[in-house]
Input
Amino acid sequence: MLALCTWQIAAHGPLRTDDERLGRTIAGSPLPSPVAEFLADLGNTAVAVPVLAVALGWAAWCARRAEEPRWWLPPLAAAVAMAAVPALVVPFKALIDRPGPPGPLADETGFFPSGHAATAAVAYGAAALLLHPLLRPRLRRPLLVAVAVLNLAVAAGLVRRGYHWPLDTTASWCLSGLLLWTVLRVSRLSHNGQSSPVGQRKAASGPHKPQPPRTAPNDPG
Output
């Protein structure tokens, strides 16, 4: 999907034409501008990264308290994924050099893919992956749904305010999906050794079984 979007944007294909038509339609939607601006701002690093930082700290504290031997691995993977966003998005922007939609940034270029959409997807998505195993089962699915809705809202705000075309955000989701998949794989790998060495030795030894009382041998005489 990422390759298809990139090819169509770079080659000025029919998908790009449809994308720009859809972008103009969304930009003219009745969504109030202040609401759209607020939603777009949720993709700012000043908003999204602190949310991820809180999730990193909480997940690390809970895992270390549970004496997991590799408690640091999932938070580290999430932090690396967040740091990888600008390292991947900035070269993409320079390579494609897509002009912006009509609006406050119409005279600028480098809009594909969206850095705000990628920041929101990785920051909120990684936070959800870290918190997912710490929540009660009935809260896990609502958390994932809320993160998905939040990212859709960020994309809608970006397009409505004229900061990006729809495919800019779609490409960011594809790119972010690869990073989040890596975070998920690393988290599952770390949970394979969930118990601490002390706990593993206790589990291996099993519960202590009392020995039956010894009786004196019968006197043969």
User: Anything to note?
Assistant: DSSP finds nine helices and no strands in the chain.
